[in-house]
Amino acid sequence: MPPVIPSSMVNPARTVFGRGTADSLLAESSAFGERGVLVHGASLRSSGALSRLMDGAPASLSVETWECPGGEPTLDHLAGLRSFARESGALWVAGVGGGSVMDLGKACAGLTTAAGDLVAYHNGAAIERPGVPFIAAPTTAGSGSEAAMVSVLTNTATGIKKSFRHPFMAPRLVILDSNLLASAPAHVIAHSGMDALTQAVESYLSRNAMWLSETLSLKAVKLVNTSLETVYADPSAACADDLMLGAHMAGLALSYARLGVVHGLAHPLGERYHIAHGHICALCLPAALRFNRDAVPDKYATLSEAVGGELFERVETLLEKLEVSSPLIGQPPPDDADFIAEVLGSGSTKANPRDVGPDDVKALLAELFQTG
Ligand SMILES: [Fe+2]
C-alpha cells in the first residue's frame, strides 16, 4: 500500500495568493528584519515593476537590490550574491523573478551563515545551521521553485548542474501574484508553462508518487492545460491565476514525489546546448511520454482524460500553438559516457516509472535529435 503523504514533507511556512498581493512584499518582509536583499531579473527593472515594489517599502526598512546576470544560474553567481548579502548585513533575502532568480535567492538565504565551501555543499555536504529567511514571489509560471527546498545551480568548472536540497532552504513566505506575469515575454510564458506541465505530468507518473502528490499533480495538469495557450496570447488574461496556481501545485507535487527522465535529460542537455530549462523540458516531454506510456497505462489514461484527449497528441498540439521549435535538430547528439552517466545518475531519472538504461538514453536522444 503506497503512503498517503511523503515520509518527510517540507513546505513553505506561509503562502499568499491573489492579484496585488506582491505590492506588500517589502512590508511583509520587514517582519523578518530591518535589512534585506531583493534578488531580481532584468525584466523586473525594465518593466518598472521593481520601482513599484520598492515604493511599497516601509521607511524603516533598508533594502539592497541585486540583479541576476541572466542565463542559467551558477555557483559563481551564488558566490557573488552571497558576498553582497553578507556585506549588506541582510537579515532576509527575497527572490522576485523566474526560476533562476528563485534558485539563486533561495541558495543565498540558505547558505548565508554557512561556514564551508560552496562547492562542498553543492557536492552534498550537510548545511550545518539555518541561514536567513527566504521570501519568494515568482514572475513566471513556472518552475515551481518557490514551493520547494531545492536550488538547482551549475558548477561551471565541471559543467555539472545539480541541487542544493535542505529543509533550511524552504521559503518562509511565498507570494503568488499573477500581476507579476504581465511583463513576461511570450516565449518565457511558453517555456516556463511547459516546464510546469512537464513537472505536473512527471510528478504524477513518478514511482514515488502518493495520494497527496497525485492529487496536486492532476489538478496542476488541468489548470496549466486550460490556461497556458490563453496566457501565452495575453499574459494579463484572467486565467493567469490558474496558470500561477497550477505551476505552484506542480512545484509542491515534485517536492514530494520527484520527477522523471525528462528532467534527467534536461539538465545535461540544457547545459551543453545552452537551451533554457523550460524549453528543453518542452522538447523532451513527447519522447518521454512515448517511452513511458505502456509502463503506466492506467495513469497515462487518467492524464489523457485530464487534458481532454490523448496526452501525447495534446502535448504536440500545445508545442505547435506555443511555437516551440527545436534547436537540437541538425546538431550532433552527445555520445560520450559522461553524458549517459549523468542522465542515469540523476534523481529525476531514478524516479521515472520505467527503468532507464544506457540504450534507452541513446534511443531518446536519437528521437530528440532526429538521428534515428
Ligand atoms: Fe523543471
Give a nutshell description of this structure.
With 372 residues, the protein is of the alpha/beta class. The chain is built from 16 helices and eight strands. Residues 143, 195, 199, 263, 277, 281 line the site of fe (ii) ion.
Topology:
Layout: E1 15-17, H1 25-29, E2 35-40, H2 42-46, H3 49-55, E3 62-67, H4 75-88, E4 93-97, H5 99-111, H6 118-122, E5 134-138, E6 150-155, E7 160-165, E8 173-176, H7 186-205, H8 211-233, H9 240-257, H10 261-273, H11 277-292, H12 297-307, H13 311-321, H14 337-345, H15 347-350, H16 358-369
Parallel strand pairs: 1-8, 2-3, 2-4, 4-5, 5-8
Antiparallel strand pairs: 6-7
Helix pairs in contact: 4-5, 7-8, 7-9, 7-11, 8-9, 10-11, 10-14, 11-13
Would you write up a description of this structure?
The chain has 372 residues and is of the alpha/beta class. The protein folds into two domains: 15-180, Rossmann fold; 185-369, Up-down Bundle (Dehydroquinate synthase-like, alpha domain). Helices cover 50% and strands 11% of the residues. It contains 16 helices and eight strands. It has helices at residues 25-29, 42-46, 49-55, 75-88, 99-111, 118-122, 186-205, 211-233, 240-257, 261-273, 277-292, 297-307, 311-321, 337-345, 347-350, 358-369, and strands at 15-17, 35-40, 62-67, 93-97, 134-138, 150-155, 160-165, 173-176. A six-stranded parallel β-sheet has the order 1-8-5-4-2-3. Strands 6-7 form a two-stranded antiparallel ribbon. α10 packs antiparallel against α11, α10 packs across α14 and α11 runs antiparallel to α13. The radius of gyration is 20 Å and the shape is globular. The N and C termini lie far apart (40 Å). Residues 143, 195, 199, 263, 277, 281 line the site of fe (ii) ion (FE2).
